[in-house]
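Table 4 source record.
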Amino acid sequence: MNRTEDRLLIARLQARDDTAVHELAERFGPRIFQLALRQMKNREDAEEVTQDVLMKVYRKIGAFRGDSALSSWIYRITFNTAMSKLRTAKLARVAQQREPYRNRDDENEQKRAIREPADWSSMPDEELLRAQLRRAVVAAIQELPEIYRVPVVLRDIEGLSTEEASTRLHVKDQTLKSRLHRGRLMLRERLQAFTTGLNLHRPTPAFSS
């Protein structure tokens, strides 16, 4: 393919001639695919790279200065696109491999928070009862189903806002509020024996709606 034909194709691409896009794909598509396949090692990814490269050439044709052959410029874009896709795939695999450990760390943090709950009681003259209440709260939280336990821990023990907790759990704010409300109701039921007849000076976070 000579430079004259390249210049004509470039001019048509810059003019956004639709037929030039088809010619670009016919002339360079097979070679782009072969280069991509050599790097990606599978046809599906190579086909995706080929389409990406053709679109990049079409969008960036105005940046081609003619210092090298059009084919060299296109194949350099192909190599860079393939390398970028490989790096992205590698990062995704690493993140996926780390996810179980990250989830395990979050679970351990929640367990530590449960073992050391905030002093929710406001009865300075009832130290023994307060200690018993703390133990009862810890036990009650641990007995909650996970779907309700985690929102309670995040909001009432770790002190996260609704937005922060919903982001952590990847749920909508309303979903978080609904689960939190249900979890608090279940805690109330489990702690009824401790709260009946007690004159709490202020509502505690775990029991307030």
